[in-house]
Amino acid sequence: MTLLRPSDIFRSARSLRPLLGVCGILMLFCACDNGCEQVREAYLTTTFTSTSGRTLRSISLLCISDTLGYTATLTKFTDIDLELNPKSTHTTMILDCSYSDYGDYYTDSDTVEIDYTVEPKFIDMECGCTVLFHINNVTTTKHLISNLIINEENIVADGDATNLIFEY
């Protein structure tokens, strides 16, 4: 019976290193394409509706506070999708709106504050987790926005419903 010396074991392990490295890289590539077909991002969807005969010409949106901060200027839109921060429970948006009213042009700013709760949800092993949001309260300064309707309180991934309707 032949006993293996420690130097023989290390020598044979060194010869396997390239093979183990190639196998590790192949496993990494296989893990990256996990086949998840489900949408995991949940967006707050807002719509602007005219009830006063005014016509919105553009909206400049600034998200502040604990949101995923960004600024956008929109000129042709039907709705706006906003990404909420899952590490927060509050979002503040400043809307600078340009509109026409019977041929005259105006600008107004409104501050919209949204309070929400966050619920992490496990989907499955392939897709991992997603975050669901629930709108608790929405307030506005009502300079341009005359009425605010919470159409759907739950913000879910791949949701088709409009969550907030801003009437102006």
How many structurally independent domains? 1
SSE series: HEEEEEEEEEE
Give me the count of strands.
10
Strand order of the largest sheet: 3-2-5-6-7-9
**What is the end-to-end distance?**
91 Å
Radius of gyration: 26 Å
Oligomer: single chain
Helix fraction, binned, reads: 10-25%
Mean of residue pLDDT?
75
Q: Enumerate the spans where pLDDT stays under 50 for 5 or more consecutive residues.
A: 28-33
Tally of alpha and pi helices: 1
Main sheet record: 6 strands, antiparallel
| Strand percentage | over 45%
Q: In terms of structural class, how would the helical and strand content be classed?
A: alpha+beta
Shape: elongated
Description:
- By secondary structure, the chain is of the alpha+beta class.
- It has one domain.
- The chain has one helix and ten strands, in the order H-E-E-E-E-E-E-E-E-E-E.
- The strands form two sheets. It has a six-stranded antiparallel sheet, with no helix packed on it. Strands 4-1-10-8 form a four-stranded mixed sheet, with no helix packed on it.
- It is elongated and about 90 Å long.
Concise account of the structure shown:
This protein has 168 residues and is of the alpha+beta class. The protein has one helix and ten strands.
